Amino acid sequence: MNNLSSRLRKTLCSYGTEPSAILLLICVWGSAIATFLTLAFLLLYILWQGLPHITPDLFALEYNTQNVSLFPALIDTVIMVIMALAMATPLGIFAAIYLVEYAKRGNKIVNVVRVTADTLSGIPSIVYGLFGMLFFVTYLKMGYSLLAGSCTVAIMVLPLIMRTTEEALKSIPDSYREGSYGLGAGKLRTVFAIVLPSAIPGILAGIILSIGRIVGETAALIYTSGTVAALPTNVLSSGRTLAVHMYVLASEGLFMQQAYATAVILVIIVICINAASGYLARKLMKGN
Residues near 200 by Cβ (< 8 Å), separated by ≥ 6? Predict the structure, then answer.
């Protein structure tokens, strides 16, 4: 605590005695403390409510009203994430590469694409769910299935992946490109051997955010993948993700303890994904 106080005093001294600078510093520290306390409260509350109710029955292979197993929902979540990212990640990355590296500056089509991506990012998930139900479930006759749900959430996360990849590519200094051209490398080799590897941390950040949105999505998936609590036999099988599973349990009001336990599993999954992606980013950067 003394170290924190001395550090704060040093920071205040470095900012001088201007009221605006001191006010800004107080706002920054206040926001940081409020964010940390909110996150700590949420994590502690969820762990306190859910940890005592994590039992082996929650991981039974088959769901029934006695065990309320989350294992089928866990498998459905993994399949949903893999399928959605397999569709959205290549499209988002290659679209961002074109916008940054190949499209001419001031191109009207580029501006339209960016405005469209920003607009899609702000559309409520329930609208995506209704669109997915009308187009994938009804018109394409996919039915309530993991494939229809993954197509819907792929459209949802595509703008996020594209915009984060675009910003990551823009952050790479032009000196990298000029040095590569000076050594005789072509455009394609420069992009994939120099620029893209250097932007991996930013790209991974967008993918992590996309995984978080897929894992936590409920409204869009209820209308497209359904709420069946069973292990999938194929991609056209109906199934629920962990978030939908938790929503159904909480809405019924009979299995609140298991709902909190499911929330703990979701938190652990998100933490593991963040840790694994950070480790992967460090390894890739060292390899470059």
Answer: 281, 284, 285
Phi, then psi, of 37 in degrees rounded to 5: -65, -40
Residue 85 near residue 273, CB atoms below 8 Å: no
Q: In the structure encoding, which two tokens stand for residue 129, read together?
A: 């769910």
CA atoms of 66 and 57, how far apart (whole Å): 9
Which residue has 């709902």 as its token pair? 259
Q: Read off the tokens for 94.
A: 């290659």
Residue 154 has pLDDT above 90, yes or no: yes
pTM: 0.82
Query: Nearest Cα to 230, choosing from 31, 30, 74?
Result: 74
Contact 47, 264 (CB under 8 A): yes
Write out pLDDT tens, residues 53-85: 888 888 888 888 788 888 899 999 999 999 999
